[in-house]
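Hi all, posting the design record for the shared folder.

TITLE: backbone redesign
STEP: 1 of 1
STRUCTURE INPUT:
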């Protein structure tokens, strides 16, 4: 008991407790980048080799394109990020099983009350780093109706695992992957900054909503019920990480398969006979397809943000689930012989956007996309769970439209800054 009290005095200290908290999450995001790099390279190479093999042994026909450019490319774009997802969930499991997560509520209680939240909101906000759906459901433990409402409305701003593949993909266009000092990578630092920015945005929104709603008030105090410290077992941590990675693959993979199939069909079909379309190269076929026509139609909406029609399609297709963005880009920009997701980044940084005269993904457009995905409500499951928890379509639809409009304006400002 005495030893636990000593640890509590350190971990919940107003100064040292916050320093330890920031250091823990800083190290987590560094690990997400550095530890996952080797398995990601293996997965990337495996999918690239599989695509090359299938192109060699199968005839040049529509079903080969469907398998390689549609399904395989889409799945490869999401499976490659499983190591990062597993590492993130593994660390979250360690924080939960060790008893540290419960103490965060007490540590943040005084500050959260000034925003109209509760110390118990910590469980939802930190849980939002994994997935907004269970995090919003966790707000049921908040007895105060107003604090619960604010917690539910701001939790979607926390950077969930579904944003991680998008962030990882786009960060490469903004900062180089180099070590700063002592194993600290610049891209890991940038990722930590994005998580920090989204957290600040969520807390700022809670403060604004609390002040603009009728009768602004302070949140209620959190109960000081702390579990004892425990050393997490490898079995429980690994089990939770693997289980959540499996859920991610099942949900994202299913969505990817459906969207990849639809996008490939639209990109392959168009005016002319099947034989004529099979004889075209991938770029020409896409330009003269139904998907190309859709891209031209939506292009004016996304041009102010620095995106072309195909990137606009990728953004629209990810409104059901944001994690499908990278897989969709793989489908829209078919791989050449020997290409991988790394080569996709190279192509997007060299291919010119005719409306801007700049590369499709440059510092400005990549930063714009990052900001858009940070704020937009691109998750149908989150919309549905908000409606269920608040028993109101008004809050569900209103928050979705509000987040999307703000995301567009923030992305527009970001692009013009570059």
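Okay, here is what came back for every position:
SEQUENCE:
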């Amino acid at each position: 008991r005495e030893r636990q009290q000593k640890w509590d005095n350190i971990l919940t200290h107003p100064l040292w407790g916050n320093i330890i908290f920031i250091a823990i999450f800083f190290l987590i995001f560094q690990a997400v980048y550095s530890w996952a790099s080797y398995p990601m390279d293996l997965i990337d190479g495996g999918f690239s080799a599989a695509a090359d093999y299938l192109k060699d042994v199968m005839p040049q026909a529509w079903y080969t394109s469907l398998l390689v450019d549609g399904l395989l490319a889409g799945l490869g774009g999401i499976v490659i990020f499983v190591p990062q997802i597993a590492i993130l969930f593994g660390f979250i499991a360690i924080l939960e099983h060790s008893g540290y997560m419960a103490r965060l509520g007490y540590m943040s209680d005084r500050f959260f009350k000034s925003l109209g939240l509760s110390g118990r909101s910590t469980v939802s906000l930190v849980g939002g780093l994994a997935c907004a759906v269970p995090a919003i459901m966790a707000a049921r433990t908040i007895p105060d109706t107003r604090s619960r409402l604010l917690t539910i409305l701001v939790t979607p701003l926390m950077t969930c695992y579904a944003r991680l593949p998008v962030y990882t993909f786009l960060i490469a266009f903004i900062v180089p992957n180099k070590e700063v000092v002592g194993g600290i990578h610049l891209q890991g630092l940038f990722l930590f900054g994005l998580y920090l920015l989204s957290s600040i945005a969520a807390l700022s929104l809670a403060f604004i909503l609390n002040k603009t709603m009728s009768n602004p008030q302070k949140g209620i105090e959190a109960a000081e019920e702390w579990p004892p410290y425990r050393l997490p077992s490898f079995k429980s941590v690994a089990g939770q990480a693997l289980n959540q990675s499996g859920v991610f693959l099942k949900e994202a993979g299913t969505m990817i398969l459906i969207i990849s199939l639809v996008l490939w069909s639209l990109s392959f079909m168009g005016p002319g006979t099947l034989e004529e379309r099979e004889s075209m190269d991938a770029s020409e076929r896409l330009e003269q397809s139904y998907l190309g026509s859709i891209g031209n139609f939506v292009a004016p909406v996304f041009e102010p943000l620095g995106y072309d029609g195909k990137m606009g399609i990728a953004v629209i297709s990810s409104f059901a689930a944001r994690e499908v963005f990278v897989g969709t880009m793989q489908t829209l920009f078919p791989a050449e012989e020997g290409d991988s997701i790394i080569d996709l980044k190279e192509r997007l940084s060299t291919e010119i956007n005719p409306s801007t005269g700049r590369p499709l993904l440059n510092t400005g457009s990549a930063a714009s996309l990052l900001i858009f995905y940070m704020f937009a409500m691109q998750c149908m499951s989150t919309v549905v769970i908000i409606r269920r928890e608040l028993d109101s379509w008004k809050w569900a639809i209103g928050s979705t439209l509000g987040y999307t409009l703000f995301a567009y304006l923030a992305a527009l400002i970001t692009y013009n800054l570059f």
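COMMENT: The first strand starts at residue 179 and ends at 181.
Let me know if anyone wants the other runs.
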